[in-house]
Amino acid sequence: MRITMTVDGTKYTDDVEPRMLLVHYLRERLGKTGTVVGCDTSNCGACTVHLDGHSVKSCSVLAVQADGCEVTTIEGLARDGRLHPVQQAFHDNHALQCGFCTPGMIMQAVDLLADNPDPDEQAVRQGLEGNLCRCTGYQNIVRAVRDAAQKMSPGAGPEAEQVADETAEATKLSRAEVQS
Amino acid sequence: MTSTAEPEVGRARLRKEDARLITGRTRWTDNMVLPGMLHMALLRSPMAHARITKIDTTAAREMPGVIAVVTGQDLAEEQGSLPCAWPITEDMKAPDAPAMAVEQVNFAGEAVAAVIARSKAEADDALESIDIDYDELPVVLDMAAAIADGADLVHENLGTNRCATWVYDSAEAGSGGAIDDAIAGAEVVVERTYRQQRLIPAFMEPRSMLVDPTGDQITMWSATQIPHILRWMTAAVTGVPESKIRVIAPDVGGGFGGKLQVTPEEIITFLMAKRLGKPVKYTESRSESLASAHHGRDQIQKLTLAADRDGTLRGLKVELLADMGAYLRLVSPGVPILGAFMFNAIYKMDAYKFVCTNVFTNKTPTDAYRGAGRPEATFGIERMMDELAAELSMDPMELRRKNWITHDEFPFTTVAGLTYDSGDYESATDKAMETFGYDALRAEQQERRDRNDAIQLGIGISTYTEMCGLAPSRVLGALRYAAGGWEHAAIRMLPTGKVELVTGTSPHGQGHETAWSQIVADQLGVPFEDVEVLHGDTQSSVRGMDSYGSRSLAVGGTAIVLAAQRVLAKARKVAAHMMECAEDDVDFTPGTFSVKGTDRGVALADVVVHAHVAHDLPDGVEATLDSDATFDPENFSFPHGTHLCAAEVDTETGRVRLRSYVCVDDVGKAVNPMIVEGQVHGGIAQGVAQALFEEAVHDESGTLTTGTLADYLVPSAADLPSFDTSRTETPATTNPLGVKGVGEAGTIASTPAVVNAIVDALRHRGVNDVEMPCTPMRVWSAIQAGGAR
Description:
The complex is a heterodimer of chains A (180) and B (789). By secondary structure, chain A is α+β, with helices and mostly antiparallel strands. Chain A has six helices and five strands, in the order ββαβββααααα. A five-stranded mixed sheet of chain A has the order 2-1-5-3-4, with helices on one face. The radius of gyration of chain A is 16 Å and the shape is globular. Chain B has 789 residues and is an alpha+beta fold. In chain B, strand 27 (656-666), helix 20 and strand 28 form a beta-alpha-beta unit. Classes of the chains: A alpha+beta (180), B alpha+beta (789). At the A-B interface, helix 2, helix 3, helix 4 and helix 5 of A face helix 1 and helix 20 of B.
C-alpha cells in the first residue's frame, strides 16, 4: 500500500506491506532509529512517538494507519538546534542512565505536559505509567518532568508540538472517510 | 590547557552521554545496517524437557527470502559448548551446553533451529514452516525434589541433578569457631527458611547482535556488558583465532548482570555469518528475552542464627539450594558463592558455616543479576536479625548496634575470612534514623496497633554491606574463577591538546564517559571537556575485563589514575629537559610544570607537543606521553549503609504502600554525586521490585507463565514512591581514589528493608514471614494464617 506521511517535518511517500508497524517503518524505511523497540506487548513504551500531536506507542499502530498524518519522533523534537525543554530537563536532572527508554519517556512526557501543564508528582507518575525504565527508579524522571513544566509555563509549553484536538479529530475523521 | 580551580572529582557534572541519548542519535546494535545484511530468527522449544525426534526444514527453505535454515545437527560440528568460567569445585558436574539444542531440549525457550532470510519478517514467517516433533521427558522443576533419591534427571548422562556442593566453614578456614558448638552453646536459636524467588534482569534494550564476516577479521557488535570476555570466549568456543575477532559493544541499553554472558544467540549468529559470508543480525523479541536470556536469584535458604539472651550473636549456619536451571552459563555456579562471604554481613560472631548445593532443573539458566549472591545473603541475614530481635523482644536496631563492627575496629577480619578495610555504620545509621523519624514512626505504629487500625504501619531496617570492586585476581584464582579481576586504562595525549582515555570497562548506563573524564581532568589538569572516553571496542580498548560487580570505578578508575601518573612521570622528564633543569627540581601543579623556586614554567600542553614531535627529547625517552596501566586490587571494597522503610499494610486487602524510604549509603568518595544518587535510586527500585512485584513463574510443564512484560511486573513510575537518599563518605583505604562502587548497593539493601517493614506491620497479628513477592494475596493470606506458617 502507498502511504504518505510527514515525519519530523519531512514528507515521505512509500509502498509498505499492510502489516508493517509504524515503528518498523520509522526505523527500517526512514532510518529514524532514535525510536526503539523494547517489547512485543505494548507494555514498555520505548517506541512512543507523536501522531498528529498525541503520543502513541508506534508498535501498536500500523504504518498504513498513519497515512496522511504528521509524526514527530525524538529526532524531530529539538528545533533549530535547541533542545526541547523536556529534553533539556532530562539532561539537567539526570533522568536517564542507559537511555533506551528515554526517547519514549520524553515523548510521553511532552504529551503529558500538554494535557496538564503543572502536574504534581503523582500526576507525573500516573501519566508515565505506560513507559518502563529499568535504570532510574523514575525519581529523576519525575523531577525532570516537573522541572520542564516550570520552565515551559506559562505559554511556552508543548503547543508548538501539539496539534489542537479538533484538528486531530478532523484528521481521524477524514482518514475514516477515505477508508470507507 | 588550563588548570581547573575546583577539583572535578566530587562535582555533580551533567553527563556527556546524554546529548546523543536525548536526541535519538544513538548506536544501539539493532540500529546497525550493513550492505548485504541478512536477518536471523530462532525457533525456540515450547517444551521444557524433550527429545527432538524430527525436524523437517524443507518447507521453510522454500519460503520467500529465505537464505538458509539450520538445526542443531547442522551446527553440531562447529558450535562447541558454551563456556562456564567458574567451576566452583573440582568435582562439579557440568553438562554439555550447545548453543543450539541437538538431540534434546532442557528448558522452554532453548533454540532448536534458525532461519536466515533477507528480512526479519521473512525469517519470522519461515519459522512457522519448520516441522518439528518432540518426545516429552519428565520435567524437573523443584530443587528439593530434584536432589531426592530416584528423581528424574535433567541430564541423564550426569547421573544426578546435583551440580556441586560448596562449603565455607569458619572452623576449617581458621576465621572462627565451630558452628555446631556455637549453636549448642547459645541461649537462643532462630531457624527460618526463606525463598529467593526467580527474577529476570529485564534490561530495557533486548539483546541484539550483528556479525560481519567480510574482511579479514570477523566483527561482532553486541548489546553486551563484556566485549573483551565475549571476544575471548567466542574464540574459545568456535576455534576462530581471537586475533581474527573484533567485538564492539556500542550503546548498550542496560544490563544488570543480564548482559554479563556469552549467549547461545551470539555464537549462532557468529557461526551463521561465518558460514554464509554475509553480515547477519539477530535481535530478540521481549518474549524471547524473558524466556531465554538468563534469569537471576532462585534460592532456598535455610538459616540458623544463634545468640545469647542479651542479643550477642554466636553463630550463623547457612544451608542453600541454588537453582542453576538447565545449563551452567558463564558464572552461574559462582553466583551463590559471592554470597558466601556476606551472610555474616556487618556483624561480629564466633562461628559461621555456609553450605550451598547447586541444582539442575528444566528451567532457563540462572546467572548474575544485580548484586549476584549478595542480595540473597543480605536478605537472609537482615530478615534473621529482625526475627531474632522479635524473639528477644528487642528493638531491631538495638540488636544490630550491639553486634556490628564499630568504626574504631577497622580494618576488621570477619568470621567469613574477609578483611573489611573501612566503614562507619554508626554515622550512616544515626543520619538515616534522624531523617526517617524513627521514634515518631514507632509511636504511630503502636497507636495504630492499639486501636486495631485496618492500616497497620511497619518499619523495616536493613544495615547492609557488600563486597564490590571485583576482584583481586589471586582471590578469584583461589575461588577457581577462570579469569582475572584487574582492569586496564590507556591515556593518549593528542598533539592538539585533547586527551583520549581508553578504558577496559564497558558502560551500559553508568556514565563512565562523564566520571572517567572527571578523574582524568583532575589527574592531568586538563579541562573535563577535552577528555574523550573510548570504550567497548576490542580494537581500541585492547585490554579489559569489562563491567560487572560494581568494579568499574574501584578497579578501572584506579587504572586511570595509574596511567595518568605514568603520563606525568614521562612528562616530567621532558619538561625538565625543556626547562634545562634536573628532574628533581620540577614541580607539577595540574596542567603546568615549573622549576621549583622560580617563575619558569611550561604548560603540559607544550610538553605534549614536544614529546609528540620528538625533535629534541632527552636520551632514553620515547616519543609521545601516551601511557597505560593495569590495576589489580589487593582487596574488595565494602560499601555499606542503612536503609529504612515505612510500609503501610492494609490488613483487609493485603495491599502494601511504601510510605517513606530513607537511606544513607557510604560508597566512599563519590566521583560524581549525581550519578551515585541515580544508581541508588535505580538499585532501590529493583530491590523493591523483588520484594513486591517480580517473579518468574513456571507452570507444571515448565512453561514460563510470566513471559511478557504484561505478566512479569517490572514496576512503573506509578508503582514506586520517591526515595530519600543521602550519603556518608568513609573513603576506601585500598585504592587511591577512596572509592567503593555503587552499582548494586540499592538492590542489595532494599529488598529486606521492605519485607522487614511488611512483617513488622503484621507481627502482632502472628505473622513472621511473607514470601516474596509480597503481593496483596500473599500478604492477605499471611494475615489470615496468623503466623501458622
